[in-house]
Each structure stands twice: as C-alpha cells, then as structure tokens.
TrEMBL record:
HTH lacI-type domain location: 19-73
Organism in which the protein naturally occurs: Cellulomonas gilvus (strain ATCC 13127 / NRRL B-14078) (Cellvibrio gilvus)
GO molecular function, one term: transcription cis-regulatory region binding
Domain of life: Bacteria
Pfam families: LacI, Peripla_BP_3
Listed name of the protein: Transcriptional regulator, LacI family
Amino acid sequence: MVVENSILTVEGDDRPSAPTLEQVAERAGVSRSTASRAINGGLRVSPDALAAVEAAVAELGYTPNRAARSLVTKRTDSIALVVPEPDERVLSDPFFAGTLNGLSTSLADSDIQVVLVIARPGESERTVRYLRNGHVDGAIVVSHHRTDDLDRTLLTSRVPNVFVGRPLSVDPAEVHYVDTDNVAGGTLAARHLIERGCRRIATIAGPEDMSAGVDRLAGWRAALDAAGMPTDAVLHGDFTLASGARTARELVEQFPDVDGVFIASDLMAAGALSVFAELGRDVPGDIAVVGYDNIGVAASTTPPLTTIVQPVVSMARAAGSRLLAQLHGEPVSREPLIFAPEIVVRASA
C-alpha cells in the first residue's frame, strides 16, 4: 500500500480510494478533532483553521461519512413530512405536492433531506416510535385528524415538530403550527354567495375530525346566521373527488331548492361539478359553486371554479423555516402563523 499525492491507492488497483478525515487534517495543518469540528458546523474552531479545512476539503474532494457524522452530531440531516392519510390520497391530491414544494424550498440552503412518512390509519403509534427513535431530526405534520393523536404524542416527545393546520386534541398554544384562517375563509365564501343573490345556500363541509373541516363550516354558518338564512343544508365529505361527487348527488336529492353551495375543497368541488352537469343543473345558472384551496384543478374545471385561496406552498415553507429554527436552537414563538384568506372569482360563481 502506498500514498501518492495524499490520495490512498492500493497496489494493483488504479482506482483512488476516498480521501479520509486524517488526510484533510494533514493538508489543512490542524488536528483531526479540529478538522472534524470544522466539517460538522465550525464550533470552537478559529476562522483561520476553518478556512484551511474548507480549502483542504475542496482540494481533496472529501465527502463526510454521514453515518460517522451522525454519531458525533446526533443528527441525521433529515426531517419527516408526516401525512396521516391513505397512500392513494397522498399520491393523488395536489395539496400534498404543494406541501412538498414549499417544504423543499425552505430547505434549499441546507443539507437537510425530506423523508415522506405516510401514517396509515391506525398506525400513529408506529409513526411516533419511528420519529422518537432518532431516524429523523424533526417532523412536519400535515392533514392530521383528531383520532391520529399525533399532536398529543408529539407534545410529550422531544422531537422538534411543526403542524400545518391547527391541531384539535391539544391546546393550540402548546404546539407550533401554521394555518389559514379557515373560519374567515368559510365566511368569505358564504358572503360571496349571499351577495351574488343566492337564497338557499348549502355546504359540503370537510371531515368533522379535522380543524379545516370544523372551521370552514363554522365560518359558513356564521355568515348565514348573520344574514338570517337557514343553516340546515349541511353534508360532509372527506376532501376527495369521490366524496364530492357522492355528496353532490345527496345534496340535490335532499335539498332540491339549493341555488348556492360552498364546497370545502376544490377536489370535492370538481367531483360535485361533474354530478351537477350530469343531473342537468347549470352552474352557475341553477347552482352557484364556491370551492376552497385554489389548487391547479380550480382553473380547469367546467366551469372554472370560484374558490378561496389556501397558500399551501407558503404555509409549508413557513413550517419548514420554523422547524429549521428549532433545529438550530433558535428561539421560536409558539404564536401560530395564520394566513388571511382571499377569494378568486371565476365562472362557477
């Protein structure tokens, strides 16, 4: 075995082996421990030594051993995006693509990778065990349900975390979360239908075990109460295309006089629009429709969908930034970051 130009080679094999930490330290003129500290964050390292190590790393093409680095730093350089939904929904709902987009943007200037963790129904304990066992440094939780109990179990763990959407099972003041003002969004949708002249307004609300479903329904109800209009025309879906189609059919059967409907997600609204067309109900002539999310499908439905904006990418980006601050040991306020709703008016209302 010989050493040539600080790159280790094996006799009879022309392929150079990867440079070692010892070689980096020798090239930089520092101890191995100083080189290790410089590479793993620069703590307790002088500016001159840090610059020398960085130059040696660049010259030698040194790549840290992530497994060995984790033993020193107790970090995995990865975070989990936890989605407590069935696989098929995660892969088909544009909301989750937007969430990944925003989260990736917030991590662009770091070496942290995202691990997607699909917490199928009934597997919350398994998910929390995975998070607690040090496989990731922190977690972003999105689309959670009351029965998942992820908010309660993560609250008692040491895993840094941020929720996208207000948790239902714990005091919101005790957790980090970002959200939109869903109550105000539901109110904005209902008021738009009222101002348009609708006199019998229904809603296809979201799940009753999710804060988005609860709050959007509360906002719709508040607007109708203020206008002295009935609030009995309420059906519930699960934010999917199929549930929107199913509940739209039930809506026409149970409340044939409805002339306006607030549907609590764009995917459900897309499913409902196809059923209204099938049943001969013109939109917006017979029934005006307002959705929620302003995801890509809203502009491509027939007719294009009036909807409330949920800034999914911005929410995920903010959640990622707050989690990074926690991981860096920076003070992070528990005051939630709440985005104000806006309405985009298109042909459906």
